[in-house]
Design a protein that fits this description.
single chain; alpha/beta; eight-stranded parallel barrel; three-stranded antiparallel β-sheet; 16% strand
């Protein structure tokens, strides 16, 4: 497989530059059959979650392709589903550079991108250009300059815009890189948001004659009590799924690393245990009433299977895909298939 060589070349470049370069060339590379040379396999291990039939339970997490520019290329890597975004109503440049830091000795990444994206209309144009017809999640957020008191308006705007194109819609209120965003995970702020989203979902379902599930993406830094409160809100408003988890503010597992003190969310192998803790807490609170999508710290097939055993129905990969390449997707599918009862 060529992926180790490809990674060494890309890791010789600036992290964000190489990320953008890879996205720009991915669709063309797929036409040339490059994914197979990198270790990609399309494995069929169907599972139904949220009323959606997934070809396999291993998906791409939001954040890698915010604008949906590489949908066709990514769909050839072996994922059972893709999630694009986070997208906001208006385009925004995000936080100042540098804002993306690799920590290869720990298979980890720190980012403080800040929802950099070209806006929801640009995303929709890219989706319409893509040939991909599989399961596509669209992750939506609020613009940085939108006060939290008006955040519901941004989420409603994006929900209406993406509804007809999405297989499911995920709500990002847990990124650590937009000031104040995580406060939307609690109390009246959360309940108000979920209520307006579910009401709008019902309207859009009638308008489009199509029910599009809504998933809430939460942080890994919640306490057990906070997870219980979030779970209560999820059940009250009959959310369709919960994604656990986003990146963490913790630096546990990368102590002494060069970029340990950079501001931003940590992803990758070091947050495996945090993600598992949240998934297990959610599974205990939800008792199967709402499906869980597990993400965070998947670096080998075992990690994906562990999340399923902890209570997740699907898993997503981002940082592990950067470090291990497409073979991690196939390894994860096989590990999940090997679980008892699968």
């Amino acid at each position: 497989m060529l992926y180790p060589l490809t990674r060494s070349i890309m890791f010789g470049l600036d992290a964000e530059y190489s990320h953008n370069l890879a996205l720009k060339g991915m669709n063309f590379a797929a036409v040339l059959g490059v994914p197979k040379l990198l270790g990609a396999e399309k494995l069929y291990a169907p599972v139904e979650v949220m009323g959606i039939k997934f070809p396999n339970p291993v998906g791409l997490a939001a954040g890698l392709d915010k604008d949906g520019a590489a949908i066709d290329g990514l769909s050839n890597m072996g994922f059972g589903f893709l999630e694009v975004g986070t997208v906001t109503p208006k385009s925004q440049v995000g936080n100042p550079k540098p804002r993306l830091f690799r920590i290869p000795e720990h298979n980890a990444i720190i980012n403080r991108m800040g929802f950099n994206n070209a806006g929801v209309d640009a995303l929709l144009e890219n989706i319409d250009k893509a040939r991909f017809k599989g399961v596509l999640g669209i992750n939506i957020g609020k613009n940085k300059d939108t006060p939290n008191e008006q955040a519901n308006n941004d989420y409603l705007y994006c929900l209406r815009k993406v509804y007809s194109r999405a297989s499911y819609i995920s709500i990002n209120i847990s990124s650590p890189n937009t000031p104040g965003l995580r406060t939307l995970q609690f109390g009246e702020s959360l309940n108000s948001l979920l209520e307006v989203l579910k009401n709008e979902q019902a309207k859009q379902a009638i308008l489009h004659d199509k029910y599009v599930p809504i998933a809430l993406k939460i942080a890994p830094d919640l306490t057990e009590e906070e997870v219980a409160m979030v779970a209560d809100s999820l059940k009250t408003y009959e959310m369709d799924a919960v994604i656990a988890t986003n990146t963490t503010l913790s630096r546990q597992g990368i102590e002494g690393a060069k970029f340990e003190h950079e501001v931003g969310g940590l992803s990758g192998a070091p947050m495996r245990n945090q993600s598992i803790r949240i998934i297990r807490n959610l599974a205990h609170e939800l008792q199967g009433s709402i499906p869980i999508i597990g993400v965070g710290g998947i670096s080998e097939g075992f990690d994906a299977a562990e999340k399923i055993e902890a209570g997740a129905s699907l898993v997503q990969i981002y940082s592990g895909f950067i470090y291990k390449g497409p073979s991690l997707i196939a390894d994860s599918v096989r590990a999940i298939q090997s679980l008892p009862g699968r």
